[in-house]
Amino acid sequence: MVVRNYNQELEFLEKINPYCWRIKKGFQPNMNVEGVFYVNQTLEKLMLDELKNACRPGMVGGFLPGVKQIANVAALPGIVGKSVGLPDIHSGYGFAIGNMAAFDINDPKSVVSPGGVGFDINCGVRLLRTNLFEQDVLPVKEQLAQSLFDHIPVGVGSKGIIPMNSKDLEEALEMGMDWSLREGYIWAEDKEHCEEYGRMLNADPSKVSMRAKKRGLPQLGTLGAGNHYAEIQVVDEIFDKWAACKMGIEEVGQVCVMIHSGSRGFGHQVATDALVQMEKAMKRDNIETNDRQLACARISSVEGQDYLKSMAAAANFAWVNRSSMTFLSRQAFAKQFHMAPDDLDMQVIYDVSHNIAKVEEHIVDGKQKTLLVHRKGSTRAFPPHHPLIPVDYQLTGQPVLIGGTMGTCSYVLTGTEQGMSETFGSTCHGAGRALSRAKSRRNIEYTEVLRKMEDMGISIRVASPKLVMEEAPESYKNVTDVVNTCHAAGISKKAIKLRPIAVIKG
Amino acid sequence: MSKRLLSALEYPNADNVNLSEEKTIRSIVVWLELNKINGAKTSTLNGLKDVGSKDWVVHFDAYKDQLGCPPLESQQEEIHWLLGKAIHLETSKNKNIYLQHAVENIRVSSAPKVIAENPLDKLDFRSKEFQDRINQLAKTLKIVPYPDPLVTLQAVRKIVCTRLAPDCVEHPDKYIAKGTPFPFQDADLGFDLNDPVLNKAAKILRMLYIQDLRNLQTKANELIVGVQSVTANPKTDTKLGQVGR
User: Fold this and answer.
1) The domain boundary residue, chosen from A67, A93, A116
2) Residue B114: is it exposed, middle or buried by C-beta count within 10 angstroms (0-12/13-18/19+)?
3) Residue at A217 is within a domain
4) pTM of the prediction?
5) Counting one residue from A and one from B, how many pairs have CB atoms under 8 Å apart?
6) Mean pLDDT, 10 residues at a time, over chain A (506 residues)?
7) Domain total for chain A?
8) Distant-in-sequence, close-in-space partners of A268: CB < 8 Å, separation ≥ 6
9) Does B226 touch chain A if contact means CB atoms closer than 8 Å?
C-alpha cells in the first residue's frame, strides 16, 4: 500500500457542498465506486483530525480512520452507487459505524459482509408515546425510574423475567414480533408501526449455532449494556407540526418512552460464527479486500445465504426483545398510574433498526435494481408514499428515531425523496462516538457523570456505574450537530426533539 | 374540466374553445351529436344543425329528453353531462381493450365460474324508468348523476352503506371521521405531472388509496386481535430476573 502524507491524502477528498464531501477513486486501492460523507463544520474537523492522526508516522494498530473505512468498503465487489458515510460516522470493525453500502443482488460477484451489519444485529430504537404530560410524571419520576429498572433487567449478564424455554426461542427466532403478538405481549398496532412489520421472513433458526441460542435464551427481555438504554423523555420542541400530529404528538411536554437495544449476546454470536465461515469462503472464491476485517462472502454462496438467514433470526430476536421491553414498560407505567396501558395511549410510534442488511428495490442510474443494502449505524429513512412504510406515515415519510447519548436530547426525523435518491433512503443513527471506550474511561470520572445527570434533573438508574463514563455525553459527538447536518443536507427532515427526564442503563 | 373532455374527444382546436359563448356551445352540441353520440331523431338533429335559429333551444330541450339527460341547474352542467355521455360511448366502444386488465376478468380466468340466480339481473337497467329513478335518488342524496345509471347507482350504494345504514343514523359519531385535518394540498405528491389540475387529481387518488390501505390495515389488526383472544397468555416471573454487574 502506498504511504501518503496528510496533504497528499486530502487531494482525494473534495468538498461538494457545505454538508457533503466526495472521496475520489484511488484514495484506497481498487475502489469500484466513489465514497461520500456528510458532515458540517464541527464534524468535518473531527473527521479530518482522525485522518491526520492516522497519517502521522508510526501510527499502526487500532481501527483505520472512518474515511479510509468508507473507501475500503467502496472497493468491495458488487457495490453500486456510492459508499456512504453519515454524519455520526466513527471507526468500527471493518465498516465504520455510520456507513451504508448497497450491493447488486443480480451481480454474481456481489458480497454480503457481517462487518457491514455489526455485531449487535438489529440494534435499534423504539419510541412509545403516552397521553401524559411532564407535570403528571415529575412528582413520581423517581418511583417510575425505579419501577422501570425493576421490570427491565439491565447490564452485562442480566437475565429476563419472561419465562422462555428452548422451543419458545426457536419459534420466536422464526416469527419475530408475530411470536410476541401470539403470546399476547404486544398489540396489533405495534406490528403495524415497526420496520419490516417486526419479522424478517427469511429467518432460519436451523442456521444458528447452539452456542448462540444458549447465549440468547436467558437474555430475552433484557436491555443489555453499552450504549443501550431505556429513557423517559418529554417532547422539547416540535419542528414539523403535521408529521408530529401523525405520530400522535400534539404538544411540547408530552411524555414518551424510548428503548434502545438490540439482539444481545445472540446477535454477537451469530456475527462471530459467520466471520469464521466467511474467511474460508473468501479463500475458496478468491475474494480480495483491502482490510482483513471486511470478511465477506458472495451473496449467492452457501456461506452468504446462511449468514443472511441467521442474521434474519437475530433481527427477529431483537424485535422480540424490544417487544418484551415494551410490554414491561407498559406494565411499569400501568402500575404507577393505576391505569391500563390502553388508557395511557402507550402506542408504539415507530421502531427502527440501525444495524441490518436488507433486500430493497432502488433506482440506480435510472434503472430499478434489487439491492442488498447494508446499514451499520445508519437508519432507513424512506420518503412519503413508499410502499414499505406504514399507512399512517404515507404522507409524512418514515419516522426515523435518533437516540441521543445519556443525558442529551433525542430526535425524530422523517425520510425524504432526496435521501432516497442520494443515500439509498438512509440517514444517521445517533450521536456517534468521538472518544474510544478506553479513552473515556481514562478521561472522565464516573461520579462526575452521575452528578451532572442529577444537576440536569435526570433520574438515573445504572447496573454498573463504573462503566457509565464510557457513555458520558463527552465521549460522543453532539447529536444536534449530527441531526442538523442530515436536515441541512436534505437526507432527512427534523420533526420532533425530545429530552430525557429519567434514564435506565446497563 | 369540460375542455379536457373536449380534447379527449379530439374536438378540433379544443384548447381555445370559449365555453361561455352561446354560438360555440351550439356548435359543440351539433359536433358531439354528429361525431360521437348519434342519439337524436332526424327532426331534432335538423333543428339543432340550424345554430342561428331562435328555436334552437326548443330542439335542444327535445334532444336532452331523447338522451335522458336529468334536469340540471345550468347550461354549463348540461354540456358537461353531454360530454360525459360522449366519453362514455367512446370508451364503451373500446370496452374490450380496457376490460382485459380489469380485476374481475383476471379473477374470472383463474377461478371456476359459479352462476348464481339474482332477481336483480332481470331488471332492465337501460330502461328510461330505471334511469329516471336513479337520477332522482342521486339528486336527493346530492350526488352528481353520471351518464351511465349503473355508475350513479354505485355511488348511491356507497353513500347508503357508509352513511345511511341503521347504525350510522343512530350513532353518527361512530362513523364521521374524527381527528385533525391534514393539509394534503401541501403534502408532497412524490412526482410531478407538470399540470396543476392533474397533480390535484393524483393527490386525491392517493388520499383514496391511503384510505383503502388504512381500512385494510384496520381489518388486519382486528383479525390479529381476534386470534390473540385465543392464543394470548403473557407471563412474567420476577424470580428469573437478574441485573448484571
Assistant:
1) A116
2) exposed
3) yes
4) 0.84
5) 105
6) 84 95 95 96 92 80 87 96 95 94 96 96 97 96 93 86 92 97 96 97 96 93 88 96 94 96 95 95 94 95 97 97 95 95 97 97 95 97 96 95 90 96 96 82 83 90 83 88 96 96 90
7) 2
8) A119, A120, A215
9) no
